[in-house]
Specification:
It is a single chain. The chain is of the alpha/beta class. It has one domain. A 4-stranded parallel sheet has the order 1-4-2-3, with helices on one face. Helix 1 links the parallel strand 2 and strand 3. The chain is globular, with a radius of gyration of 14 Å.
Length: 122
Amino acid sequence: MAISDIRLKRIYDPVDDGDGTRILIDRLWPRGVSKERAALDAWMPDVGPSHELRKWFAHEPGRWSVFCERYREELSDRSELLKALRRTAEKGPLTLLFSATDRERNQAVVVRRFLQEMDAAN
């Protein structure tokens, strides 16, 4: 079954009925968010970038392309976690949650693209 609806959302955004399965993919728990408010179905911290990569990137736009390359390398070693995300996405809408303020350049963007490429390869 193909995946078609992977949404990206900041953990600080309001919960929506259309979110489907909500999975936080930050390595660190977001500041100021209670577990109740997060309304998560799962937290998968090991999907997030390594501490070293996260600190190096520091959300500097000029480092985005290198961050993507390095993070994709890390993701290739986490195939079981990505397969689990893909299985979830096959069942219905999946919302990948992140805490970064930059909605265009964050780990969820890379993970969604990675999952879409996995899906297209099959």
